[in-house]
Design brief:
Length: 70
């Protein structure tokens, strides 16, 4: 009781880890363009999204694994 362990006590400590590859990642990415001409803004957004898809492709993320919403 005074900081000592009684003689009939078993004390156990331990840690464990299991390395695993993640199977799912969820991210949200958005692009925004401002322009008085809506056609120019849409074109700028399309270019920005193409860059996003290129970056994902470089990370070896298959297109069929990507979902988009508008």
């Amino acid at each position: 009781v005074n900081g000592t362990v009684p003689s009939q006590t078993i004390t156990v400590q331990g840690t464990a880890s299991i390395p695993a590859t993640p199977t799912i990642a969820k991210i949200t990415i958005g692009v925004t363009s401002f322009n008085e001409d809506v056609t120019v803004a849409q074109s700028e957004n399309a270019e920005k999204m193409a860059q996003v898809f290129q970056a994902l492709e470089k990370l070896e993320i298959a297109k069929e694994k990507i979902k988009t919403i508008s």
